């Protein structure tokens, strides 16, 4: 089978990249090991993705945003960060323009479903679902992709979007810096007594980090970071006992709580690929940059990276070049690295500092919150970063 571009993985990043590239005359293969039925109707996986204004715009341009049911899109008005037993909160909210929030929360499975629908049926995209990519060989003229079912594809460019633990990346000889935080993140929906008022809270308590992300109605997404054995214990608790424990762990700030739906846990491993491109090869999504979720930027980066790579390929085609033009791939690498490396590094530092139980770290994070509050430009910069599509006055603040 002959294609121009073969994409490994139809997760949100692979789907977004396929959609961003569609329509420029290339034949695109999208290979996904999960079956087509799972792609068309993915189940709830506990993740509620905080999307910046820019990501919402990109999804709209891809025809995906319009497919997400409005009742599933929750506005994020404000974010607060609390440390230990202190009642002090560092607040992030857009200034001046009431009604303009920091972004939106959308369930991951709805994003995946909407992107799948936006891609399904496009004449230039061939979906090969239910079979994994087993090997990739890149040469000067073309790349060869071997599927687990024995079929072979030929393409000019292979783009891997096959998770942060990407096998394709490893097989291409590209290493990655990995930081294993030795903890797991438990995510689930909780109904509660007290309204959240659209405010997300990140509370760095002693021995645990717990965030509550506001969903529509008196419902929040609980995001609890704990040592893995503790997460396992919480996963096994009966729903009533679980609700009571989360309410207690959250200091009863939202009153009594009840579990709604299923619980899910994810290991906390941050990954940054040493290179994003090689001969006739590129990485997008978590395969390039797998963020710690505390700053809620993994998929936002996945989307912006897919957009950047698609633009570079389109520009190469307009110049009459190969879609795997080395200079175009290098430009993608530079731009995506510049866009992601500072926040990747800062996020790991924050995650490390805020889960360190030693006294100096506790004092330092308290001082950091106070300092952040005392410096409005810092708060404005973080707020603008969260919004990304904020008004110019916010983007230039500070
Ligand atoms: C708890 C949690 C909360 C998060 N919150 C946020 C947030 O608020 N904001 C945000 O922006 N991001 C957030 N993220 C990050 C976001 O979920 C990820 O960045 C995003 O899902 C990555 O998408 P992806 O397509 O790169 O990878 P994945 O979703 O991992 O998809 C990879 C796909 O590749 C397929 N695959 C793997 N190997 C092969 C193979 N050999 N052949 C074929 N197919 C293959 C897999 O089956 C899968 O479908 C969060 C993550 C977690 C865990």
Written overview of the protein:
This protein starts with a strand and ends with a helix. The strands form four sheets. It has an eight-stranded mixed β-sheet, with helices on both faces. Strands 8-2-1-12-19-18 form a six-stranded mixed β-sheet, with helices on one face. It has a three-stranded antiparallel β-sheet with strand order 3-7-4. It is an alpha+beta fold. It has a domain at 5-69 and 107-178 and 270-351: 3-Layer(bba) Sandwich (FAD/NAD(P)-binding domain), CATH 3.50.50.60. It is 36% helix and 30% strand. Bound molecules: flavin-adenine dinucleotide. The site of flavin-adenine dinucleotide (FAD) has 34 residues, from helix 1, strand 2, strand 3, strand 13 and helix 8.
Average pLDDT level: 89
| Low-confidence runs | 389-398
Which percent band covers the strand fraction? Answer: 25-35%
Considering the protein shown, what is the CATH homologous superfamily of the domain at 5-69 and 107-178 and 270-351?
FAD/NAD(P)-binding domain
Shape: globular
How far is the first residue's CA from the last residue's CA? 54 Å
Number of helices: 12
What topology, given as strand order, has the largest sheet?
6-5-14-15-16-13-17-20
The assigned CATH architecture of the domain at 5-69 and 107-178 and 270-351 is 3-Layer(bba) Sandwich
Rg calculated over all Cα atoms: 21 Å
Secondary-structure map:
Elements: E1 5-8, H1 12-21, E2 28-32, H2 36-40, E3 48-51, H3 53-61, E4 74-76, E5 78-83, E6 89-92, E7 103-107, H4 108-119, E8 125-129, E9 133-138, E10 143-147, E11 152-155, E12 157-160, H5 167-171, E13 176-192, E14 199-205, E15 208-215, E16 219-227, H6 228-236, H7 239-249, E17 257-273, E18 277-278, E19 281-283, E20 289-290, H8 298-318, H9 326-353, H10 359-374, H11 376-387, H12 392-396
Parallel strand pairs: 1-2, 1-12, 2-8, 5-14, 12-19
Antiparallel strand pairs: 3-7, 4-7, 5-6, 9-10, 10-11, 13-16, 13-17, 14-15, 15-16, 17-20, 18-19
Flavin-adenine dinucleotide is lined by residues 8-14, 31-34, 47, 49-50, 108, 132-133, 161-163, 167, 185, 187, 266, 285-287, 293, 296-300, 302.
């Amino acid at each position: 089978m002959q294609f121009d571009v073969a994409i490994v993985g139809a997760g949100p990043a692979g789907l977004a990249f396929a959609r961003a590239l569609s329509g420029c005359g290339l034949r695109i293969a999208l290979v996904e090991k999960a079956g087509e039925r799972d792609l068309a109707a993915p189940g709830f996986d506990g993740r509620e993705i905080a999307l910046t204004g820019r990501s919402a715009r990109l999804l709209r341009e891809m025809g995906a945003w319009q497919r997400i049911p409005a009742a599933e899109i929750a506005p994020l008005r404000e974010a607060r960060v609390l440390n230990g037993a202190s009642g002090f909160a560092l607040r992030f909210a857009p200034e001046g323009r009431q009604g303009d929030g920091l972004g939106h929360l959308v369930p991951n499975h709805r994003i995946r479903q909407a992107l799948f629908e936006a891609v399904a049926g496009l004449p230039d995209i061939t979906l090969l679902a239910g079979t994994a990519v087993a090997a990739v060989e890149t040469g000067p003229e073309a790349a060869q992709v071997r599927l687990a079912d024995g079929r072979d594809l030929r393409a000019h460019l292979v783009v891997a979007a096959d998770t942060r633990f990407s096998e394709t990346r490893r097989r291409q000889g590209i290493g990655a810096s990995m930081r294993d935080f030795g903890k797991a993140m438990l995510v689930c929906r909780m109904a509660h007594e007290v309204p959240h008022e659209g405010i997300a809270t990140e509370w760095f308590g002693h021995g645990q980090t717990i965030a509550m992300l506001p969903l529509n109605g008196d419902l929040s997404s609980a995001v609890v970071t704990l040592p893995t054995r503790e997460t396992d214990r919480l996963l096994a608790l009966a729903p009533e006992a679980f609700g009571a424990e989360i309410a207690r762990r959250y200091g009863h700030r939202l009153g009594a709580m009840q579990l709604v739906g299923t619980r899910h846990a994810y290991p906390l491993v941050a990954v940054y690929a040493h290179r994003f491109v090689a001969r006739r090869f590129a990485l997008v999504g978590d395969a390039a940059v797998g963020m710690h979720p505390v700053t809620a930027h993994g998929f936002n980066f996945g989307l912006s990276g897919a957009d950047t790579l698609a633009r570079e390929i389109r520009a190469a085609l307009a110049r009459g070049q190969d879609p795997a033009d080395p200079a175009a791939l290098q430009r993608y690498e530079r731009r995506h690295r510049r866009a992601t490396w500072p926040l990747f590094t800062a996020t790991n530092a924050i995650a490390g500092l805020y889960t360190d139980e030693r006294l100096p770290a506790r004092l330092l994070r308290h001082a950091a919150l106070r300092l952040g509050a005392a410096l409005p430009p810092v708060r404005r910069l973080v707020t603008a970063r969260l919004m990304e599509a904020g008004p110019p006055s916010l983007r230039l603040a500070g």
